[in-house]
């Protein structure tokens, strides 16, 4: 299918993962003064044989989704693979919380979780069509449902769905990733070349890009 092949090409990235460390610069003023922050490039880690699409950390350790090889890999600070989670179906933009990995399987239309107890499939009352990204924040969950052009969001009690295909505010053209923060939901509306921001009831707030 042309759309799938096109999406795969767009989602492939170079075989290098750029690990950026946030450095906090101390202030020369009083202790009560605000501490400025600045992102500074730290290092480049080459990961041989991996085409990383997404990444997250579990207990300080980095996991990468390697969609081309249908697996997740855990790497050390030198890029060496220390653990592999196989038999996935095109894992995409992953997330983690409290030691549990959340894995959107684009080719299986499912979200899988992985922790010390094993591997499980997230139970949903709705059906997915190529989930491309998942986000977890406290007891909240969000899924970028790629071909359904929508976001599924769980507030800790109930699921809601928002979005439809289109180019207007609040509409999507194949959303590829989602991120929950304290008060907002951020969506990578990739094929509309923009980021959209929503409140936690699914109401459109703002847009960046065009």
What does this structure look like?
- This protein is mainly β.
- Strand 3 and strand 4 (61-66) form a beta hairpin.
- Helices cover 5% and strands 49% of the residues.
- The strands form five sheets. Strands 3-4-5-6 form a four-stranded antiparallel β-sheet, with no helix packed on it. A four-stranded antiparallel β-sheet has the order 7-8-9-10, with no helix packed on it. The chain has a four-stranded antiparallel β-sheet with strand order 11-12-13-14, with no helix packed on it.
- The relative contact order is 0.10.
The helix/strand order is HEEEEEEEEEEEEEEEEEE
Shape: globular
Structural class category: mainly beta
Helix content range: under 10%
| Tally of helical runs | 1
Global mean pLDDT: 87
Task: Give keywords.
210 residues, mainly beta, 4-stranded antiparallel beta sheet, globular
């Amino acid at each position: 299918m042309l759309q799938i092949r096109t999406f795969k090409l767009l989602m492939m990235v170079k075989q290098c993962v750029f690990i950026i460390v946030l450095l906090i610069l101390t202030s020369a003023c009083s202790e009560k003064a605000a501490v400025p922050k600045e992102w500074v490039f730290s290092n480049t880690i080459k990961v041989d044989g991996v085409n990383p699409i997404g990444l997250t950390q579990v207990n300080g350790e980095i996991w990468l989704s390697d969609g081309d090889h249908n697996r997740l890999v855990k790497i050390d600070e030198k890029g060496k693979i220390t653990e592999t989670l196989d038999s996935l179906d095109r894992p995409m933009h992953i997330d983690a919380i409290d030691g549990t990995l959340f894995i959107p399987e684009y080719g299986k239309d499912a979200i899988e979780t992985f922790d010390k107890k094993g591997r499980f499939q997230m139970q949903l009352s709705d059906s997915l069509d190529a989930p491309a990204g998942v986000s977890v924040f406290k007891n909240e969950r969000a899924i970028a449902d790629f071909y359904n052009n929508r976001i599924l969001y769980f507030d800790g009690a109930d699921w809601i769905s928002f979005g439809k295909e289109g180019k207007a505010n609040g509409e999507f053209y194949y959303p590829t990733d989602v991120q929950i923060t304290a008060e907002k939901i951020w969506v990578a509306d990739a094929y509309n070349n923009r980021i959209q921001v929503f409140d936690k009831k699914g109401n459109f707030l703002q847009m960046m890009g065009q």
